[in-house]
Fold this protein.
Amino acid sequence: MTSKMRAYTAIGACLAACLFNITVHGQGRPQRAGTPDHKEQLSETYRGSKARDVEYQKIEPFKVMDDLFYVGPGFVSAWIIPTSEGLIMIDTGQEPYVDTEIANIQKVGFNAKNVKYILLTHGHLDHFGGANKIKALSGAKVVLSGIDCDLMAKSAAARPPRAGDEPPACDVRLKEGDTVTVGNTSMKVYITPGHTPGSTTYEFTTHENGKGYKALVMGGPGGQPNLEAAQQFYESAMRLNKFLDVQVAANIHSWLNGYHYPNGGLLERRDRLAMRKPGDPNPFIDNASWRQWVKIAQDGAAKSLADEKAKSGGKTN
């Protein structure tokens, strides 16, 4: 499903960055089409021509798997995983969308007061901005890598945030190899730096009709424009060779700005899922697209690293 939208412009990208107080580079360096007749994909509009349209961003929640639900706005993901002992929430979006997320949790049959753990993917505002409100409502524990817990605190000290944008205090500081378990659901933790120094990736099993599928939330699917971050993301991207059997990619944005997810973003897949007939495959269970994306990310990471090394005169420190 596509819709005719205006091409990206440098000014539009700058305004979107100012609105959300996040890095324009987002998940990798944007690879936007430069022709005036560029047609955005549906998911792309939420991070492009409609990035500043608050009402457009307030999409309806949807079920992806029997125990995986999307409840965020259009541009940034917020996931709910129901367990036998309450809810896990992965990322919380930011204002002005948090009340919409709380209502969306209700719409898919749950209560935000039952969120037990908030698992953050990294320390950028668009992913943690709603955590304090969700925590106040539910008493949930906020969980993130210790590295990015420090990043959030340092950033707030250096540049005091606006009211409502304060970073949450971390109740659990994760490290490589940890496991977060709530009821019958366990989330394996990997630290995958590059987008931030402590971007946190979660591996878990999700289900459809009683069958389990390997799922992954990659905490920072793209680097930043400096040599250290490019080196880190290159290493994180190469590490994905150990995760080639992932079947369900629960991406942290509906559209990945830099390394575009092939065969449709989250909202194209949502629409295909809504039209699914009995016996048709679930479009979110897609190992082939995941493998394609890993190759795209690795090639992009290698190029970014080479570019940063060239800019630094080949120095690695």
